[in-house]
Amino acid sequence: xxxxxxxxxxxxxxxxxxxxWQTCDDLFGVKNMKxxxxxxxxxxxxxxRPITVDEMANGLKSEARxxxxxxxxFDDYDVCHLDGQGILWTVVGWSARSLKQVSDxxxxxxxxxPDAFAKGGIYGGGRTVxxxxxxxxxxxxxxxxxxxxxxxxxxxxxxKSTDEFEAHxxxxxxxxxxxxxxxxxRPEIPEGLTSGEA
Length: 198
Hints:
The chain is α+β, with helices and mostly antiparallel strands and 198 residues long. The chain contains six helices and eight strands; from the N terminus they run βαααβαββαββββα. It has helices at residues 10-16, 18-28, 30-40, 53-65, 99-102, 163-181; strands at 4-6, 44-46, 76-84, 86-94, 110-112, 116-121, 125-133, 148-153. It has an eight-stranded antiparallel sheet, covered by helices on one side. α1 packs across α2 (18-28) and α2 packs across α3. The longest helix is centred in the last third of the chain and has 19 residues, at 163-181. It is globular and about 50 Å long. The protein starts with a strand and ends in a 17-residue tail after the last helix.
């Protein structure tokens, strides 16, 4: 894995790694990322390769439109990976899980709104993984092999972080990926990943 380090301030990260910085801001929102960077302290590293939101979205859309290769599978997109006094690590890709698996009421997945499911993290430690149905424009009928987009967000693991903040981050990144890909079914992803049934 390529490690890009900057043991100074957040300003130096922005100057040295403008693509990664902009992608994190675009996906999570400037205010949220300021809060994350404040939590992670001055000695931070950016661990992911440069990737723009458009590059991520175009890759996901291409995979939905092209013939599926069962040997190579789908790509994962490491879109925002900061390390300091805690970690923020986000990976996006088409899920290997089926809708039947995530909607099984006896499983570990929790429905969040009508169109999305989540597990882990805010529901029991570790990463929060969110999946939601996403139909891509231009995919031939029956061509889109996988219909669930998956967003994985690491536990920030910082005393200043709360479950509520991490749930907010998970919802925000899922909403941003949905909008960037342009899911034509417009899945509903509620703020804070709550089902509204509590």
